[in-house]
Automatic annotation (TrEMBL):
Keywords: Acyltransferase, Transferase. Residues 284-372 form the Beta-ketoacyl-[acyl-carrier-protein] synthase III C-terminal domain. Pfam families: ACP_syn_III (PF08545), ACP_syn_III_C (PF08541). This is Beta-ketodecanoyl-[acyl-carrier-protein] synthase. GO terms for biological process: fatty acid biosynthetic process; secondary metabolite biosynthetic process. InterPro entries: ACP_syn_III_C, ACP_syn_III_N, Thiolase-like. GO terms for molecular function: 3-oxoacyl-[acyl-carrier-protein] synthase activity. It comes from the Bacteria.
């Protein structure tokens, strides 16, 4: 059986940027107005005053300096604190489809693949804009691809899990060449009125082409040596908004229901040991150590988490090129972060040199692919 390779990758970057300074200016203006409007209730102890924030706090807490978004209008308006855009109605192309197509085309070009060469499309995203019809099938149709397509999601590990699904299909012979697309339209899920989370997400899309090594004609490709997945339930990272919400009156549902929420301290304490143990176990199963890897393309949620994990695995402070960071520019892009890092920092490998693509987060979930430059 032929080996499976990643023969191309793609990246779609949205048109707008928002710096920490811009975000904080809008947030603090909202806070000032809220506290002024509710001064009497705050004085009486009936309402909690909202705390102000700073760019320094955001960068220290997360490592994030800026983010890309599909729609900037409204996000910096203290009277709105939400992006302005039109709903995708019947016949309209959802943002996730637009983003996926753009990233997919770049991946196909890198892989020297035409639509007729591909027979599987998997669209993995944290936030699906509609339950059905499948957005993956729409991407498939608009790219002119035959075969079959489907949507999937497991929050922060969606892209690695989708790639592992593609790997399994290729190994099983149910597909010969797969396009995996990963649009993350995350900014609408931000609660821009929350000091603890308003800065976290940005929008982006990534994509990869995976195929049999025998059919690969790309100039630069990586062989998949091993895959590994793990889940264990936790609600420390969650969003509860869903298709049943219209059945309930407003006072039955909490105001923050549609938004991302997390208990950051518990996530750090519980998830990082899972991740470092998981990676150590996978490397051991392949008779490798972290020092045998040229590069680790890790999930991009928090700089401190990444540095902690890398130091734990390597037994020393990592060099910048060993665990490349993109979250300073892109913010947390849900499941796309490790693939942005891979796309941006996959060059410079010699044949036989190894790397690890790993994502982790909500679920809890961890997914990784051990790869080797062919």
């Amino acid at each position: 059986m032929s080996n499976i390779v990643i023969s191309g990758s793609g990246l779609f970057i949205p048109p707008h940027t928002i710096s920490n300074d811009e975000l904080i200016e809008a947030y603090n203006a909202y806070v000032e107005k809220f506290n002024a409007d509710n001064a009497a209730a705050i004085e009486a102890g009936d309402v909690d005053a909202l705390p102000s924030s700073s760019s320094e706090f955001v960068e220290k807490a997360s490592g994030i300096k800026s983010r890309y978004v599909m729609y900037k209008e409204g996000m910096l308006d203290p009277e709105r604190m939400a992006p302005v855009f039109k709903p995708a109605l019947a016949g309209d192309e959802p943002e996730t489809v637009t983003m996926a197509i753009a990233a997919g085309r770049e991946a196909m070009e890198q892989a020297n693949k035409k639509p007729e060469d591909i027979d599987l499309v998997i669209m993995g995203t944290t936030n699906h804009q509609r339950p059905y019809p499948s957005a993956a099938v729409e991407v498939q149709q608009k790219l002119g691809i035959k075969g079959f397509a489907y949507d999937m999601g497991i929050a922060c590990s969606t892209m690695t899990f989708a790639m592992i699904n593609a790997y399994a299909a290729l190994k099983a012979g149910t597909a010969k060449c797969a396009l995996v697309v990963n649009p993350e339209f995350a900014s609408p899920q931000l609660n821009l009125k929350s000091r603890d989370s308003h800065f976290i997400f940005g929008d982006v899309a990534t994509a990869v082409v995976m195929e049999l090594e025998d059919t690969c004609t790309a100039d630069y490709a990586f062989r998949v040596l091993d895959t590994k997945q793990m889940t264990t339930f936790s609600d420390n990272i969650r969003c509860d908004g869903n298709y049943t919400d219209h059945n309930f009156s407003g006072d039955q549902l909490p105001e923050d229901r549609p938004y991302f929420r997390q208990n950051g301290r518990k996530v750090f304490k519980e998830l990082l040991p899972l991740v470092t143990g998981f990676i150590t176990e996978q490397l051991g199963e392949n008779h490798l150590e972290a020092s045998d890897l040229k590069r680790m393309w890790l999930h991009q949620a928090n700089l401190t988490m990444n540095m902690f994990a890398a130091k734990k695995l390597l037994g020393r402070e990592p060099e910048a090129n060993e665990t490349p960071i993109v979250l300073d520019e892109f913010a947390n892009t849900a499941s796309a972060g490790s693939l942005i890092a891979f796309h941006r920092h996959k060059d410079g490998f010699e044949s036989g040199e190894k790397g690890l693509i790993c994502s982790f987060g909500a679920g809890y979930s961890v997914g990784s692919l051990l790869v080797e430059k062919i």
